[in-house]
């Protein structure tokens, strides 16, 4: 069985692609049975769409791949804590597991939800996986734009 760190590294590769494209560097992968079935990275600028977050793109790809609207047997790995919009999509997707790297105090869901989880009650949540790498990518991106 492959580790959470293995899949987070794959999400970090996608976040680097977003960075190179001038997008906020967030990457996401959807995994079932140790196999990546979908990938996404932020494409807000490229698509001129504020909903084109890495998680949303990865989820849409996973739904299409499986021909299903729920993902109870899947895990999502995303480099940064999901925003409230993405947390809602993750809830409705009924994902079995959600893993993220860096916290996002400014735009993450936790800023608004406080002590209540916005995710499906059966979802396994793991945070802080390769958080330093994900945070450094974000910091580097915003430093370069100031």
From TrEMBL:
Necessary cofactors: Zn(2+)
EC number, as in UniProt: 3.5.4.33
Pfam assignment, any one: dCMP_cyt_deam_1
Entry's cofactor comment: Binds 1 zinc ion per subunit.
Domain CMP/dCMP-type deaminase: 2-112
The organism's place on the tree of life at top rank: Bacteria
UniProt keyword Secreted present: no
Alphabetical UniProt keywords: Hydrolase, Metal-binding, tRNA processing, Zinc
SUPFAM superfamilies linked: Cytidine deaminase-like
Catalytic reaction(s) noted: adenosine(34) in tRNA + H2O + H(+) = inosine(34) in tRNA + NH4(+)
Segments passing through the bilayer: none
Active-site feature positions: 55 (proton donor)
Annotated residues for binding of Zn(2+): 53, 83, 86
Function: Catalyzes the deamination of adenosine to inosine at the wobble position 34 of tRNA(Arg2).
Family: Belongs to the cytidine and deoxycytidylate deaminase family. ADAT2 subfamily.
Subunit note: Homodimer.
PANTHER family, per the entry: CYTOSINE DEAMINASE FAMILY MEMBER (PTHR11079), TRNA-SPECIFIC ADENOSINE DEAMINASE (PTHR11079:SF202)
Name by which UniProt lists this protein: tRNA-specific adenosine deaminase
Organism field: Flavihumibacter fluminis
């Amino acid at each position: 069985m492959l580790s959470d760190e293995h899949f987070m590294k794959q999400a970090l590769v996608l976040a680097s692609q977003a960075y190179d494209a001038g997008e906020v560097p967030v990457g996401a992968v959807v995994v079932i049975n140790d196999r990546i079935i979908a990938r996404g990275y932020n494409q807000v600028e490229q698509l001129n769409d504020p909903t084109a977050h890495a998680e949303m793109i990865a989820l849409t790809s996973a739904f299409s791949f499986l021909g299903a609207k729920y993902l109870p047997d899947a895990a999502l790995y995303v480099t940064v804590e999901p925003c409230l919009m993405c947390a809602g999509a993750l809830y409705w997707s009924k994902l079995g597991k959600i893993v993220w790297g860096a916290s996002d105090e400014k735009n993450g869901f936790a800023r608004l939800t406080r002590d209540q989880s916005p995710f499906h009650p059966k979802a396994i949540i793991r945070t802080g996986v390769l958080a330093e790498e994900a945070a450094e990518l974000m910091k580097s991106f915003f430093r370069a734009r100031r």
